Amino acid sequence: MLLNRRQDDMGLIVQKYGGTSVADTTRIKKVAERLVKRKREEDQVIAVVSAIGDTTDELINLSNEITDQPPKREYDMLISTGEQVSVALLAMAINELGEDVISLTGSQVGIITDDLHTKAKILEIDSSRLEKELAKDQIVVVAGFQGITINDDITTLGRGGSDTTAVALAAKLDADICEIYTDVNGIYTADPRMLDDAVKLPEISYDEMLEMASLGAKVLQPRSVEFAKQYKIKLAVKSSFNYESGTHVKEVEELEKGKVVSGVACNTNEVKISLIGVPDRPGIASKVFNTLAESSINVDMIIQNVHRGEVNDITFTIDDEDLSQAKVILNELNKELTIEDIIYDAEVAKVSIVGAGMVTNPGVAAKMFEALADADINIEMISTSEIKVSCLMDEAKSQQAVKVIHDKFNLGEKQRVSDQNV
Amino acid sequence: MLLNRRQDDMGLIVQKYGGTSVADTTRIKKVAERLVKRKREEDQVIAVVSAIGDTTDELINLSNEITDQPPKREYDMLISTGEQVSVALLAMAINELGEDVISLTGSQVGIITDDLHTKAKILEIDSSRLEKELAKDQIVVVAGFQGITINDDITTLGRGGSDTTAVALAAKLDADICEIYTDVNGIYTADPRMLDDAVKLPEISYDEMLEMASLGAKVLQPRSVEFAKQYKIKLAVKSSFNYESGTHVKEVEELEKGKVVSGVACNTNEVKISLIGVPDRPGIASKVFNTLAESSINVDMIIQNVHRGEVNDITFTIDDEDLSQAKVILNELNKELTIEDIIYDAEVAKVSIVGAGMVTNPGVAAKMFEALADADINIEMISTSEIKVSCLMDEAKSQQAVKVIHDKFNLGEKQRVSDQNV
């Protein structure tokens, strides 16, 4: 039935609204208006919604009042109520505007995940109920960020998980587009909250977006971009506060013209961990990183310095939300490994340039290093891929670093008008 | 497996904690201590929990900011998050004390209800998961007040629904006792917040409790008492703020001695509705009451006065939470019935005496009316059953009424010592 209807040239769009877009009941009513407007233009609309503004933080505060080590299953049980509140309220607001609507939790929408609580991965989507509700010609409001294990336990998908919910549903139902609504107008050459001069990009490739997301552009969750790329879901990042066109995320060959450097990203959510004086035996590093991986802690940048004969220093970065768990793991490991010292440094930032054209343009990294050197900013670690170069530095210098790199590659508003990009 | 274990003389208790017992994280930790203590004494403990203190009101406020007519399905979706928050936090607190624990939502615990949202009735309980979790020798914390329809929609059981959840689970699992924890020490001869002189009853019959509950004693939900009576579940009403013995609710033949009047209840949550000048045709009254019943609006007291030949006055009372819905229904009905006037009066209270021995003691009602007459309190409506007499009156007079009736039947602390009850 659904497929029959779709063949009749009717659109299906998935829209995702983040926490700032539904910050209070006034904003929820605005989002309801947008959805109703779109429903009356298109045919089928699914809205994926995050928790209201600071609800999640309030729930975390309650949890902290009880314990600093909550069982992760119970943490998910607690936190997932945030989205349930916002979908119910949004459904009420849509109903108030006279459109048929139903809200669904992650469980009801059939988002089956693994049991890795607080950062679960979607295994499959049983979309039968969702399709049934869509076929009733109503707006379906879906709780983002959450799913359910095959054992019927509530899970959450980790930071920014609502993006993944939206893209996964768009993929499952072969939606025409997945629109991610946020409080900025799209993807910029740098964080516009950090740099006035930043320019909105009308389009960007999946790969660039993936790097931007991973690198702390904070607009899209990396996993959602991977999903979109894999299933070729058209993505758009837009503001829920206006009707501007936003940034469209596409295959690189669909972009109007490749740029060497598309933007500068800054991530201050990393922590640098230095293991000082690690015994120089085979398998030590793999032991450390395997143990972290078993606890689903992603390690980002890694440096190993052989410098004192029998001992090495290993330095790496992780996401700061994994820090307390990493400390427990490393202290435990240290009982058998006899590492001389473990140093944690949260006052670091990773500043990166991203660009699909970088791979064919030698000298881009050197130009970035030059900009940093000219500004007397010390680089602590470097990592590169085909489309990005990242430098770890003192967090206090990161804003200046973004500015000098942005200027160096002429990414700003004024340069754009007269200059070529590189 | 569960039954095998039970045969080995191990106890199963169900405890229900209301909103004031889990008013904040400090209180939640206290409840966790009680549960852990009990778990270490008994063998299997199920805790049924209400929403934290004023959470439900906060959620209702959010709903009111959106609309004054929320779809009931979405209202349940919203409100049910309150219990989900409290069970997760209580499970965290129990885990922190070193006991194994799991929290379950109404859906996870298999409480299947009809689809009468906001006041759903339990149809059946699929206790397979609950039994599986109990068999793991852990405390199971269950979200009260909520269930799920066969179509996987979240429902709530209406005011005080957590009591029903607790008793229904106790019945399903043949628990040894169901303990209802609240912020008073048990059932009193009158509301101790209204009358200093009220005395705690060590025991009371199901039928008396049922009348007390229905009449506004506010301690137990009537449906939960019916359930307990039907399945012969031992009930106890206790305070979560101390370890006193509370009030035990039993079969009347198990009571130590039958009293004529056990207590005086006062319900200020009723609204009196007068239909003035109703055409005197057969079927009009049944039309009115059937239509209200179809919307699950319970009508309590009813008087019909034939007084002007062709028209009647019909006066009845309903719960004040049904008032806005009743107004809509009656206005609609009035289009065809041509009632002269409809008068709503919320400033009424129903004061009642309850006692299992009343049926065999004539003159009890007369004694109550005398007490009210002596205090110059006008009785607007009267209803009686085998074990209760209720009088509707001006709400402003209700506290005085409770006092004079309580005195008349010598129910107070001082009288108890020297006098006999009637």
UniProtKB/TrEMBL annotation, chains A, B:
Organism domain of life: Bacteria
Record pathway: Amino-acid biosynthesis; L-lysine biosynthesis via DAP pathway; (S)-tetrahydrodipicolinate from L-aspartate: step 1/4; Amino-acid biosynthesis; L-methionine biosynthesis via de novo pathway; L-homoserine from L-aspartate: step 1/3; Amino-acid biosynthesis; L-threonine biosynthesis; L-threonine from L-aspartate: step 1/5
Alphabetic keyword roster: Amino-acid biosynthesis, ATP-binding, Diaminopimelate biosynthesis, Kinase, Lysine biosynthesis, Nucleotide-binding, Transferase
Catalytic EC class: transferase
EC numbers, comma separated: 2.7.2.4
Reaction(s) catalysed (UniProt annotation): L-aspartate + ATP = 4-phospho-L-aspartate + ADP
Gene3D superfamilies tied to this protein: Acetylglutamate kinase-like, VC0802-like
GO cellular component: cytosol
InterPro entries named in the record: AceGlu_kinase-like_sf, ACT-like_dom_sf, ACT_Aspartokinase, ACT_dom, AKii-LysC-BS, Asp/Glu/Uridylate_kinase, Asp_kin_monofn, Asp_kinase
Binding site for substrate: T56, E83
Family: Belongs to the aspartokinase family.
NCBIfam families hit by this protein: asp_kin_monofn (TIGR00656), asp_kinases (TIGR00657), PRK06635.1-2 (NF005154), PRK06635.1-4 (NF005155)
Function statement: Catalyzes the phosphorylation of the beta-carboxyl group of aspartic acid with ATP to yield 4-phospho-L-aspartate, which is involved in the branched biosynthetic pathway leading to the biosynthesis of amino acids threonine, isoleucine and methionine.
Protein's name according to its UniProt entry: Aspartokinase
The species this protein was found in: Selenihalanaerobacter shriftii
Lineage: Bacteria, Bacillati, Bacillota, Clostridia, Halanaerobiales
